[in-house]
Each structure stands twice: as C-alpha cells, then as structure tokens.
C-alpha cells in the first residue's frame, strides 16, 4: 500500500492464512473484491476497495495477506500487512477453527499501540462451531466485541456493518470544518489560487477544492482569484474579506497588500490544522533556523505525480530552505506511505505535505516516529510561511481562536 489515495475511513481485515478474510470482505460488500481459494496464501498484497455504508458514508476495506505467512516471500507479504496497521481507523481480527495465539496477540498489541479500535469475527462458523468460552474470554480480556460469521448464511452482514460504524472514532469520520470558528454566515472569503504548471489541466488542486466547499458549507461568500488579480480587485471594489486563503507559495507577495486586520492563511496551513499534527508543527517549524551544514531533511509527499522542474516538494522547498539558512543541506523525498530510508533520527527536520489525499490517522501515524524521537516536524505551508517571514500571521487565526 504505497499511497493513501482515498481520504476515507480505512478498515483493515487481518488474520492467519485461509481464515476466510477475502470471503468475509466479499460478503460484506457484495462484490468480488478479493480472490477466494481453498489453499493458503491466496491474498499476497493488501487489496483496497471503496464501499458506501448506508447512513454512515464511504469507507475503504483492506484485505491483507495472512499474518502467519512463511518463507522469504511470506515475510515480504507479512511486512506489507503489518505496514497497514498504523494507517487503519478500525481493525477486524478474523479467527477460524478457534485458533488464537501469538499472531492474534501481535495484532492486538499493534492496535493498542496505535489506539486503534478492533473487534473479533469467528469465521466459518458453519464448518467449526465457535468456542463460546474462548469468545467470552476474548471479549472480557480485550473489551472488544466478538461476532460469529459464515459466508454461506450471510446472516451477520448488517450486524458487522453496525459494529463497524459504532466502533469507528468520531475523530476519524466526523467532517470538521476547515474554517469553522473563523467565519460566520455571509462573511466574504477570498481564495487566491494560482494556475501554474503544478495545477492539473482543466481542474484545481484538491486543497483548493476542499477549501471552496468548506466556505460554501459555512454559508460564506467565496471570491476566487488568481494572484495577479487580487490587488487591483481589492482597490477597485473596496471589498474587505473576513478571511484570505492563499496558495502558500504566494505568501511573500500576498502579505504585502492584504491589510493586517484581515486574517491571512494558506491552503496547506488549513490542512495542517484540519487533519495534521498542528501542535507539533507549531513547535517544529521554527527549528528550521537551527539547521546546520550537512543536516538531512526528510520531505514526505502524499501522492505520486509527475515531477516538474518547479515541483514544490522536490525543488522549491529545498531552495527556500537553502536560501533561508545559507547552509548546504541534504534532502530525501518519500512518496505516499513508503518506507523512510535509514533511521528517523538521521534527519534534522521532517516536512510533511498538506496531506489532502491522506486521512488524519495516516498523517499522525506517519509522523509519530519522528515526534517520539524528538525530531522536529512541520508541513509545507507552515514552513513556507516561516521562511518568508509571515509564520506568526499565517497561524494566528488558529492560535488566537484556540485561546478564546
């Protein structure tokens, strides 16, 4: 699972080989998502599938390889399974033939470490009757629900879906407003959206689309302009927006003609507050001033894309940091949820993109090793604001409002 391309709830299906994980997910969704066979090891790589739960919303089910896979290839498959554990919002541990032991305990330890809720499904109940004592023991010991299931009867589909929706934390699926608390109905929000080589043909980038939708959801008036039209528009119309949201790359330019009494922030800063590790970003961003010659910087991108000569993560941010520090620094770029080269402590700073295609859980989990190791973390927008000298202004709307 190299990228988290869907910003939806992720539900992982885990267990040993041939416990019926694929049959389970196929039955729940009513789709032939995963290959089903009678021999072990049918599922090799994690298989992801979107599904709409009526009355709840879209989720993504992840079918994984058996946690007990063997051999060299088995270790690789198991590694990919384990890699998904810190990105899911809910885990389902599938048990068959009443087998419970170190593999399942390892999964439980991982879920507990990531604060991820989980529950058990005793599968293939039509073949081997679930041990009621074992079911009771697991429920009592781990305070987790235990359900029975058979792909032949399909009686428990609704029970399973209801259990999923009841266990997923509100923080995972509640769509909190990006600008809620900053504006009121009928306020004017000015969105500055450059159309450059990184903009997709005929479309806008996702953070801009998300911000526009959130503005409408807050019953505000949206005004959308390119950066070269903003100054003349404000002078000619006399309109005074309540909030200005700009592409982070325009911070240095926009700051000069947006009055100080108007809130100004960036799309990436909005995302940092909305679903990033904002408090640690606040602490980590100023650490860019302490970078010294030879320090390594880790840049975390969320999505795979064609790299242009003015790519923000691979070229612009390194150039801005170099110009700001006047130091010779080393940069490593990692895409999606791929492994980080070396040890996290090899790096002096971690820079996360806005994460518009990731879930909050994925971003927090992605940054956890750095935070726990004391490595400073920041995100694109907050770093850009800092090196352009307007960091305090860009985060002020959220910092000031949190103090009220």
Please sum up the structure shown:
It contains 15 helices and 14 strands. It is α/β, with parallel strands linked by helices.
Question: Can you characterise this structure?
Answer:
This protein has 404 residues and is an alpha/beta fold. Among the domains are: 9-173, Rossmann fold; 284-387, Rossmann fold. Helices cover 37% and strands 17% of the residues. It has 15 helices and 14 strands. The chain has helices spanning 21-29, 71-83, 102-113, 132-142, 157-167, 170-173, 206-217, 230-237, 251-254, 267-275, 278-284, 312-325, 360-373, 380-387, 391-402, and strands at 9-15, 47-53, 57-63, 90-95, 118-122, 146-148, 188-192, 221-225, 243-246, 263-266, 296-300, 330-334, 349-352, 377-379. The strands form three sheets. Strands 2-3-1-4-5-6 form a six-stranded mixed sheet, sandwiched between helices. The protein has a four-stranded parallel sheet with strand order 8-7-9-10. A four-stranded parallel sheet has the order 12-11-13-14, sandwiched between helices. Helix 3 links the parallel strand 4 (90-95) and strand 5 (118-122). Helix 12 runs parallel beside helix 14 and helix 14 crosses helix 15. The longest helix is centred in the last third of the chain and has 14 residues, at 312-325. It is globular and about 75 Å long. It starts with 8 loop residues before the first strand and ends with a helix. 39% of the residues are buried. Residues 1-6, 33-43 and 305-309 have low confidence and may be disordered.
């Amino acid at each position: 699972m190299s990228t988290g391309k869907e910003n939806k709830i992720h539900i992982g299906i885990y267990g040993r080989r041939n416990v019926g994980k694929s049959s389970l997910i196929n039955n729940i969704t009513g789709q032939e998502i995963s290959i089903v066979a009678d021999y072990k090891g049918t599922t090799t790589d994690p298989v992801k599938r979107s599904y709409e739960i009526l009355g709840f919303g879209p989720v993504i089910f992840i079918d994984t390889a058996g946690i007990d896979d063997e051999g060299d290839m088995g270790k690789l498959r198991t590694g990919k399974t384990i890699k998904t554990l810190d990105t899911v919002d809910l885990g389902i541990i599938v048990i068959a033939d009443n087998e419970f032991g170190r593999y399942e305990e390892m999964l439980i330890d991982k879920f507990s470490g990531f604060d991820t809720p989980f529950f058990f499904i005793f599968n293939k109940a039509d073949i081997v009757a679930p041990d009621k004592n074992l079911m009771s023991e697991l429920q009592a010991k781990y305070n987790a629900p235990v359900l029975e299931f058979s792909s032949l009867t399909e009686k428990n589909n609704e029970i399973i879906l209801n259990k999923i929706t009841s266990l997923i934390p509100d923080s995972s699926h509640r769509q909190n407003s990006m600008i809620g608390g900053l504006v009121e109905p009928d306020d004017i929000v000015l969105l500055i959206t450059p159309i450059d080589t990184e903009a997709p043909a005929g479309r806008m980038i996702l953070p801009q689309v998300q911000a526009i939708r959130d503005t409408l959801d807050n019953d505000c008036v949206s005004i959308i302009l390119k950066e070269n039209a903003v100054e003349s528009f404000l002078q000619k119309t006399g309109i005074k927006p309540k909030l200005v949201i700009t592409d982070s790359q325009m911070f240095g330019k926009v700051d000069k003609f947006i009055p100080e009494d108007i809130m100004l922030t960036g799309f990436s800063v909005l995302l940092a507050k909305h679903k990033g590790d904002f408090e640690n970003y606040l602490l980590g961003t100023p650490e860019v001033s302490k970078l010294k010659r030879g320090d390594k910087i880790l840049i975390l991108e969320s999505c795979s894309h064609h790299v242009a000569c003015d790519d923000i993560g691979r070229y612009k941010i390194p150039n801005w940091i170099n110009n700001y520090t006047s130091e010779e620094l080393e940069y490593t770029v990692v895409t999606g949820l791929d492994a980080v080269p070396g040890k996290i402590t090899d790096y002096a700073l971690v820079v996360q993109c806005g994460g518009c295609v990731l879930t909050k859980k994925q971003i927090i989990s992605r940054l956890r090793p750095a935070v726990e190791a004391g490595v400073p973390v920041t995100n694109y927008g907050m770093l850009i604001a800092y090196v352009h000298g307007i960091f305090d202004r860009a985060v002020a709307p959220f910092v000031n409002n949190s103090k009220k």
